[in-house]
Design goal:
Blueprint lengths: L2 E5 L5 H8 L6 E6 L2 H8 L5 E5 L5 H7 L10 H4 L1 E2 L5 H11 L3 E5 L2 H14 L2 E3 L2 E7 L2 E8 L4 E7 L3 E5 L38 E3 L17 E3 L9 E2 L10 H4 L7 E5 L6 H13 L3 E4 L1 H5 L21 E5 L5 H4 L7 E6 L6 H4 L2 E4 L2 H13 L2
Parallel strand pairs: 1-2, 1-5, 2-3, 3-12, 5-10, 6-10, 14-15, 14-16, 16-17, 17-18
Antiparallel strand pairs: 4-13, 7-8, 8-9, 11-12
Helix pairs in contact: 5-6, 8-12
């Protein structure tokens, strides 16, 4: 049974290859993007890469390796089809190849492409996937559920599209073990599988070292260009600041030495103002959980930390009113020191924090401010 991996960015491609190996068949990466996506896919340990170039004059740019990620300076030169514009062509290719398993990271472009593939091949849609292996003529799957509190075991007798939102354990590539927090899957090696057929419109693109296959040892996988026709109605026209008014400042989160994270435990506008004063008092930048940005609108989406936002590595991360669900904690895994303030003594954030204060935000933050502002 062959497995496809959909990649529209550099993302956790090696981790997905490791996740696919216990299926025992050929692993093909469908790379929809510029040359850097193609190159990352070729080096990820798969058996084959199908490349759908994007950007202005997509095929020529990819062949020459001349594509540059869009910025305000080069947006006009690189304006062209977005990855999602190739949805129909990708679905048609999947309908022809009939992969038994399709995997992708939990990212917007990949989810759009994966949904089209699922519809084209009649696949079950499985979010939160952590491990899978061949089980007779079907697939045995482990996935996370209930906000990461439960591991579910599933079996599927037909095609499966799995969405991976776990940590990028790239070091496990090729190990044949489960990825993330689920139990280990059965070991497996790449078999011959069923090769993905190349249509007459495809152009073969040699790998850098001329090898005929890729694996986890570092050999580049052979790359085949898929000459797909994009939807002309969907084009990239360049980047623009995100809504919320502080998108430019939010980019500094990546290098901020101190960050205060704000969660739903900060309930009122008055409490939010207190936490912002606390951030200013310790010279910290501000971040938040997804609900604070998406549901409450208190900060821009550019300030979301976690699987659906940024991964940051400050010297100090102070979580205020954040329970500490896995999707958020993954975004602070590289923080040197984590401190937390929360009213729930059983909040998962205290398992990650080196320092913690159990108490209500309305009581704890004013006490901290009073101490800081007297120094």
């Amino acid at each position: 049974m062959q497995t496809w991996i959909i990649a529209a960015g550099e993302g956790p491609i090696r981790t997905l290859v490791a996740l696919a190996r216990p299926m025992g068949g050929a692993v093909t990466i469908l790379a929809v993007g510029p040359a850097d996506v193609r190159d990352a896919a070729a080096a990820a340990g798969a058996d084959r890469v199908l490349h759908v170039p994007t950007g202005s004059d997509a095929n020529a740019a990819a062949a020459a390796g001349a594509y540059q990620a869009p910025t305000e300076a080069n947006a006009e030169a690189n304006a062209g089809p977005a990855a999602e514009a190739y949805t129909a062509g990708v679905a048609a290719a999947a309908r022809e190849a009939r992969p038994g398993v399709v995997l992708c990271p939990d990212s917007p472009a990949e989810r759009v492409l994966a949904a089209a593939v699922a519809a084209a091949i009649g696949a079950a849609w499985v979010p939160g996937i952590r491990s899978l292996r061949a089980a007779g003529t079907g697939v045995a799957i482990s996935r996370v559920a209930v906000e990461g509190r439960v591991i579910e075991d599933l079996t599927a007798t037909g095609p499966v599209v799995g969405i991976f939102d776990g940590p990028d354990d790239a070091g496990t590539a090729g190990s044949g073990t489960a990825v993330g927090s689920a139990g280990t899957a059965g070991s497996g090696t790449a078999g011959s599988g069923t090769a993905v057929g190349a249509s007459a419109a495809e152009q073969t693109e040699a790998s850098a070292d001329g090898s005929s296959g890729g694996d986890a040892s570092g050999e580049a996988a052979p790359v085949t260009v898929l000459d797909l026709v994009p939807d002309a109605g969907l084009r990239r026209v360049g980047p623009a600041p995100a809504a919320g008014g502080d998108a430019d400042d939010a980019r500094a989160l990546a290098t901020a030495p101190r960050v205060v994270g704000i969660g739903r435990g900060v309930r009122s506008s008055d409490e939010f103002a207190l936490v912002e004063r606390l951030a200013a008092a310790i010279g910290a930048d501000r971040a938040c959980t997804l609900p604070v940005a998406e549901d409450l609108g208190r900060l821009s989406l550019d300030r979301v930390v976690g699987r659906t936002g940024r991964v940051i590595k400050p010297q100090l991360y102070l979580a205020v009113g954040i329970s500490g669900q896995p999707q958020h904690v993954d975004g602070i895994r590289d923080a040197r020191i984590v401190a937390a303030i929360d009213a729930d003594p059983d909040a998962p954030i205290f398992r990650r924090a080196q320092y913690g204060i159990i108490g209500d935000v309305a009581d704890v933050v004013p006490a901290l401010l009073a101490e800081l502002e007297t120094r």
